[in-house]
Structures are given as structure tokens and as C-alpha cells.
Amino acid sequence: MPESAPHTDTYSFLGPAGTFTEAALAQVPEAQGKPWRAVNNVGEALADVVSGRSVAAMIAIENSVDGGVSATQDALASVPGLRIIGEYLVPVNFVLVAPRGVTLDAVTVVTAHPVAYAQCHLWLDANLPEHGHLPASSNVAAAEALFESGQADAAIAPPGIDKRLDVDVLAENIGDNPNAMTRFVLVSRSTVIPPRTGADKTSLIVELPEDRSGALLDMLEQFSTRGVNLSLIESRPIGDALGRYRFVIDADGHIFDERVADALLGLRRSSPNVIFLGSYPRADKQPIEFFARYDDEVFLEARAWLDALIGEEPA
């Protein structure tokens, strides 16, 4: 969906057209019928949101094979005022394509997005053991580069690319894991928190107060003592000194859940920097399971009990 002019309802995505990111954006009901803007990288997508050029941006944040997307995690940690308002899952697989007439035995350099390249390394090692890798900004851009730079003989691209470009498919299903899935998030400046559904996720970035024995355990105990499961925890260097890390965290539950809210209060007391990225419905719609002792009513009753003690008149 081409963009004709800046528009308050524009949605940004990693382009060009035909990427997995565009497929994720196609799952967003609110984006249908609105202008879509293809960008070259995560930084440009988030800059669109910050500047108001786009109402939201779709970006990849995690892959089931390759783990977290570090460029996205670092960008979310450094760009203030952003919130995740939804997540979307896209199955991913890849084909190897080349200009017409190029055969597999003639391939010496393969261009690919780094994440896609990492997900196909077993096939590449087995079938092109001496190949070189030329990074590309996206999976579709890799295929397009075959006709622009001339530096690569073949490209790793999404299935169906041969219907858009004049290429031959040299090999199909070259991904190392046929069940690979990429998780995308829709990021905006909105501070309106989506209502809780019972199948929610809360994303955070947390810095440790100091580099010492037990510091990470102290952070994790803020969740474990309140019955909050973590579906993702990854470390990223803060960048100001060796040994200084922040943690990207996905917690099961919603900030409106008392157990999650209480955990955030604990983090706020102990961490020098807690970035709340948002609470939003899980893409898989799986209800969050937890023990009854962590029900909202238990936390509320305990607070009411304490309030009553504080309010008692001395004898």
C-alpha cells in the first residue's frame, strides 16, 4: 500500500513490499485502508513514530530460532516515549533465488538479511560450504540487490519472491527449522494501555543497580515471589562500561494485574532504570496460568489488612 504524503494514520514497516514485516502489519485491523510506509531499518521506523510521521511502526523483536533482535531491543531502550500496543506472529521460511540462468554450483556469494542468514546456516554449510555472505537490509531487499549491486550471485528471500522479481528459485525450504516463527510488535507513542484480557504480556527493560553477586537473582525474585512467569529474559550491554547490562523482559500478565503491578513496584525500588514498554494481548491468546495465592483479591485483601492496622487507634 504506497504512501503518497505524510499522514497521521500512516503505519511504518521494514520494507520493501513483500517482507515478513509487511505480513505482520497485514494482521492489524486498524491499519487496513490506511497508508503504509516502507522504511529501511528499525531506527527509521521508530523515528517515524517519534516524529509523528507515523501513528505506529511494525518491527521484529524475537525469532524462535535466533532469539531476540538486538537492534530492536537496543532501539527500544534508547528511544524514550514508545509503547508496544500489540504483538503478531508470522511463520517464516526461505528460498534461495538467483538471476535467470545462474545455477547452484555457480553461487559463491549469498546476500541475505543477517537474521535470515542465521536461520539458514545449516543448509548453506551443507550445500554452499565456501560461500561468502553479503548482508542486506531486508529479505526482499536481498533479492532486489541481485540486480543492483552485482556483488552477490544468489539471495535468501521469502517464498513467492519469484512472482515479483525475475529470478529463479534454486532451492526451497532452506530454513533450519520448518516451525520457525518471528514475533513482531506494533510500537506507538500512545500511553493508553490496552485493557487486560487474561492472556496478556508485559514488556520491560531493567538495569541492575550494580554488578555484584546476587544482583540478577534479586531482580528475578521480584517476579518469582509474586508468581509472575517470565517468557523472555535477555541481556544487552548498556554500552557505557564493560560488565554493565540491561535486561529485556517479557512477563506473563498485565500491569493491571495486582501481582504484576506489585512486581513493578519492587523493580522500581531496586533498579536505577525501569522502562515500561507496555502491556498488551498475547498473539497466541493463551490464558495466563498462576496459583490462586497470587489472585488480585489476595493482594487487595493484604493491603486492606495493612491499612486497617495502620488506622487502628492506640489502646
Total separate domains: 3
Q: What is the CATH superfamily label of the largest domain?
A: ACT domain
Biggest sheet architecture: 6 strands, mixed
The ordered string of helix (H) and strand (E) elements is EHEHEEHEEEHHEHEEEEHEEHEH
The beta-strand count equals 15
By DSSP (H or I, 4+ residues per run), the number of helices equals 9
Strand content range: 25-35%
Helix content bin? 25-40%
As a whole number of angstroms, the C-alpha radius of gyration is: 23 Å
Gap between N and C termini, in Å?
A: 73 Å
Identify the quaternary structure here. single chain
CATH class of the largest domain: Alpha Beta
Uncertain stretches: 1-6
GO biological process, one term: L-phenylalanine biosynthetic process
Pathway: Amino-acid biosynthesis; L-phenylalanine biosynthesis; phenylpyruvate from prephenate: step 1/1
EC number: 4.2.1.51
Site (Essential for prephenate dehydratase activity): 182
Describe the structure.
There is one protein chain. This protein is an alpha/beta fold and 315 residues long. It folds into three domains: 7-91 and 181-192, D-Maltodextrin-Binding Protein, domain 2 (3-Layer(aba) Sandwich), CATH 3.40.190; 95-171, 3-Layer(aba) Sandwich (D-Maltodextrin-Binding Protein, domain 2); 193-310, 2-Layer Sandwich (Alpha-Beta Plaits). 27% of the residues lie in helices and 28% in strands. The protein contains nine helices and 15 strands. The strands form three sheets. Strands 1, 2, 3, 4, 5 and 11 form a six-stranded mixed β-sheet that branches. A five-stranded mixed β-sheet has the order 8-7-9-6-10. Strand 3 and strand 4 form a beta hairpin. The chain is elongated, with a radius of gyration of 23 Å. The model is unreliable at 1-6 (pLDDT under 50). Its EC number is 4.2.1.51. The record marks 182 as: Essential for prephenate dehydratase activity. Residues 10-189 form the Prephenate dehydratase domain. One of its GO terms (biological process) is L-phenylalanine biosynthetic process.
